[in-house]
């Protein structure tokens, strides 16, 4: 079986889970360990991508460009990647990150909106970056639509397109259909990014690998938005057992997860009621802390907000609708807002 | 009643919706000409059907008619860069509906009267027309340190021009949130949502305030400007009263006024969910109509 390339995104997806509070020192420590362990790609940026420090997404405690700079300086072998969401980031931030020495940009859009990425893929290639497309909320669309969208990205110069299970709502059959379809239709690489709301992050990643996924994602201790991701150290252990040799040092990863990442976490990431209801309703994982805030402020339940957000077909970047939904639910209950 | 002759340049969807608005309302404008570049365009056919003179030679016939005083440019930013100096030279007031922004930004409820002596005004963007007056309404009560606007529209209502240049929307709208809204620092973020059936345009404004303020006065100011806007964009409304939420910001934990708004289109040509397009054509109509009234009153005064 082909050995997929592993991207660790603890320092990007995990940023959501700790309310965007990474310090340069934490970044230095985690990058050092991941790099030593032989993880080939390390993603660093605001959880919502470059320039994501906003009220809508949550402000970063430390300027992300400083964090990226530290990561680039620390990594000896690993490539540093950043996430980029058109509209949150603009060409200006993409250029700045490239100037700091990132090697890879992962351009993320809702999985029906690939045509807004053209300007950024072209720029990324001009800047000499590896450019990866991220089709977010891939569970909302059938394989056929994802193929059309992925082909657009390919035509703009993408080196790889990911099926991104942002809501952790896919089951292995759904992953297989989507990844296989992309593998068949594209001449570039295909990736898969998992979330663990249904307890399937590792399982779904394996399903993707079986279907030929060239790139996969993980986070140490699963530190990612909402229910978190495929746990990097577990993934490497599992792949070792399957005789898929990633060349990554498991012992270093286990120590890093235990000693460096776990202490940063507010609480262990588990599939609790909130995360399960989020995944079950097909809601974007980074909404979680915003939903909790609104639930508390307006005296309504996390689960009912999640359910309504799912019904309204909200997508990444619509954190403002959480307030709208919470206020409406509160009004229905006669709670004074 | 005397009317001012106007022309629409660009026979695409925006131009067509605007045409229906001018024909529907008995204001100060008389639509004299719709000009496009494609003789087979649906927009020109619809204009003919309504008995309006048409031209498929672009701007030329508009320039030749000295009676035409106001021109709505519904082409593209690139085309408007070329059209703007020609219109000015021929003494025509240009209402620029493209992102070219040759002239100053205008929002009818905020600063239109300041710019009636200009020859070219720009309508910012859909998100700009919808949100900058809300920021302005907060800022006239208490200074807004930071404003962030989220403009969400149905995917199907977003044309290729916007899709190929998201940067432009972000830059232009954020700049207007500062210049028109008065925020010291500003961000603007578009969201294109593909839900079926399509969603109405919705906008959210976060206004971070650094000093003590009278919440009631802010709410009243916002509600009153929303009412003003709804006079020319009938489907414009607030979703509930503005609320004050405390948020962690780079300037500390600060009160943040959260305003949510929805724009339902009038359905003149666009489907009603496309409030983002309707607010552009409705604002263009309003700017043209106010300018036309100004022209008429100047004439009246000269007599």
TrEMBL record, chain A:
Ranges in a coiled coil: none
The Pyruvate carboxyltransferase domain extends over: 4-254
Catalysed reactions, as listed in the record: (S)-4-hydroxy-2-oxohexanoate = propanal + pyruvate; (S)-4-hydroxy-2-oxopentanoate = acetaldehyde + pyruvate
Give one Pfam family, short name only: HMGL-like
The protein's site described by Transition state stabilizer is found at 12
CDD domains assigned: DRE_TIM_HOA (cd07943)
**Alphabetical UniProt keywords:** Aromatic hydrocarbons catabolism, Lyase, Manganese, Metal-binding
Q: What is its EC number?
A: 4.1.3.39
Q: Which organism is it from?
A: Ureibacillus endophyticus
What is the primary gene name for this protein? dmpG
Tell me which residues bind substrate. Answer: 12-13, 166, 193, 284
| Catalytic-site annotation from UniProt | 16 (proton acceptor)
The record lists Mn(2+) as bound by: 13, 193, 195
One GO MF term = 4-hydroxy-2-oxovalerate aldolase activity
Name the protein family: Belongs to the 4-hydroxy-2-oxovalerate aldolase family.
Ranges that cross the membrane: none
Query: An example of a Gene Ontology BP annotation on this entry?
Result: L-leucine biosynthetic process
Against InterPro entries, the record matches this protein to:
2-IPM_HCS-like (IPR050073), 4OH_2_O-val_aldolase (IPR017629), Aldolase_TIM (IPR013785), DmpG_comm (IPR012425), DRE_TIM_HOA (IPR035685), PYR_CT (IPR000891)
Would you tell me the protein name for this molecule? Answer: 4-hydroxy-2-oxovalerate aldolase
TrEMBL record, chain B:
Keyword annotations for this protein, in alphabetical order, are:
Aromatic hydrocarbons catabolism, NAD, Oxidoreductase
InterPro entries associated with the record: Acetaldehyde_dehydrogenase, Acetylaldehyde_DH_C, NAD(P)-bd_dom_sf, Semialdehyde_DH_NAD-bd
For this UniProt entry, the molecular function terms from Gene Ontology, in alphabetical order, are:
acetaldehyde dehydrogenase (acetylating) activity; NAD binding
User: From what superkingdom does this record's organism come?
Assistant: Bacteria
Q: What class of enzyme is it?
A: oxidoreductase
Catalysed reactions listed for this entry: acetaldehyde + NAD(+) + CoA = acetyl-CoA + NADH + H(+)
- List each copy of the Semialdehyde dehydrogenase NAD-binding domain by range: 5-118
This entry's Enzyme Commission designation comes to 1.2.1.10
Annotated signal sequence range? none
Q: Where is the active site?
A: 126 (acyl-thioester intermediate)
The UniProt annotation places NAD(+) binding at 11-14, 157-165, 276
Q: Which protein family is named in the record?
A: Belongs to the acetaldehyde dehydrogenase family.
NCBIfam families documented for this protein: ac_ald_DH_ac, PRK08300.1
Which HAMAP family does the record match to this protein? Ac_ald_DH_ac (MF_01657)
What is the protein's name according to its record? Answer: Acetaldehyde dehydrogenase
């Amino acid at each position: 079986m082909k050995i997929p390339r592993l991207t660790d995104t603890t320092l990007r997806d995990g940023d959501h889970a700790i309310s965007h509070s990474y310090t340069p020192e934490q970044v230095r420590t985690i990058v050092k360990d991941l790099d030593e362990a032989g993880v080939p790609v390390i993603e660093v940026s605001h959880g919502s991508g470059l320039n994501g420090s906003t009220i809508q997404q949550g402000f970063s405690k430390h300027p992300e460009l400083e964090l990226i700079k530290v990561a680039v300086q620390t990594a000896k072998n690993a490539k540093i990647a950043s996430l980029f969401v058109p509209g949150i980031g603009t060409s200006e931030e993409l250029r700045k990150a490239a100037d700091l020495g990132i090697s890879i940009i992962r351009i993320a859009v809702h999985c029906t909106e690939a045509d807004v990425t053209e300007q950024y893929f072209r720029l990324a290639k001009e800047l000499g970056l590896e450019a990866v497309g991220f089709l977010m909320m891939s569970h909302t669309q059938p394989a056929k639509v994802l193929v059309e969208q992925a082909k657009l990205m390919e035509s703009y110069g993408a080196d790889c397109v990911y099926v991104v299970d942002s809501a952790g709502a896919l089951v292995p059959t759904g992953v297989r259909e989507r990844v296989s379809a992309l593998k068949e239709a594209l001449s570039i690489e295909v990736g898969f990014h998992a979330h663990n709301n249904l307890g399937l992050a590792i399982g779904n990643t394996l399903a993707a690998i079986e279907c030929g996924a060239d790139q996969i994602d993980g986070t140490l201790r699963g530190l990612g938005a909402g229910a978190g991701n495929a746990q990097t150290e577990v993934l490497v252990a599992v792949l070792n057992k399957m005789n898929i040799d990633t060349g990554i040092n498991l012992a270093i990863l286990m120590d890093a997860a235990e000693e460096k990442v776990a202490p940063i976490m507010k609480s262990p990431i588990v599939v609790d009621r909130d995360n399960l209801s989020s995944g079950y309703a097909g809601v974007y994982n980074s909404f979680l802390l915003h939903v909790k805030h609104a639930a508390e402020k307006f005296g309504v339940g996390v689960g009912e907000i999640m359910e309504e957000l799912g019904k309204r077909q909200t997508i990444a970047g619509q954190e403002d609708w959480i307030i709208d939904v919470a206020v409406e639910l509160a009004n229905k209950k006669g709670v004074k807002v | 009643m005397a009317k001012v002759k106007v022309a629409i340049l660009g026979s695409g969807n925006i131009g067509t919706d605007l045409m229906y608005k001018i024909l529907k309302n008995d204001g100060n404008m008389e639509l004299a000409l719709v000009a496009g570049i494609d003789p087979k365009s649906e927009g020109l056919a619809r204009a003919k059907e309504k008995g309006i003179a048409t031209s498929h030679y672009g701007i030329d016939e508009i320039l030749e008619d000295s009676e035409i005083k106001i021109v709505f440019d519904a082409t593209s930013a690139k085309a408007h860069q070329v059209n703007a100096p020609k219109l000015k030279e021929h003494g025509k007031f240009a209402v620029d509906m493209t992102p070219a922004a040759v002239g100053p930004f205008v929002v009818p409820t905020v600063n239109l009267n300041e710019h009636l002596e200009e020859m070219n005004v720009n309508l910012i963007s859909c998100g700009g027309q919808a949100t900058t007056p809300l920021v302005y309404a907060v800022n006239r009560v208490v200074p807004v340190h930071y404003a962030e606007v989220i403009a969400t529209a149905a995917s199907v209502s977003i044309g290729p021009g916007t899709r190929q240049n998201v940067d432009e929307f972000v830059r232009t709208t954020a700049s207007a949130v500062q210049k028109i809204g008065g925020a010291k620092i500003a961000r603007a973020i578009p969201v294109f949502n593909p839900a079926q059936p399509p969603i109405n345009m919705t906008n959210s404004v976060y206004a971070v305030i650094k000093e003590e303020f009278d919440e009631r006065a802010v709410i009243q100011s916002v509600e009153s400007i929303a009412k003003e806007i709804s006079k020319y964009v009938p489907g414009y409304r607030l979703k509930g009263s503005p609320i004050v939420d405390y948020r962690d910001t780079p300037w500390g934990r600060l009160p943040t006024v959260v305003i949510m708004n929805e724009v339902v289109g009038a359905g003149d040509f666009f489907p009603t969910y496309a409030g983002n397009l309707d607010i552009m054509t409705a604002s263009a109509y309003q700017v043209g109509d106010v300018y036309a009234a100004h022209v008429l009153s100047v004439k009246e005064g000269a007599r």
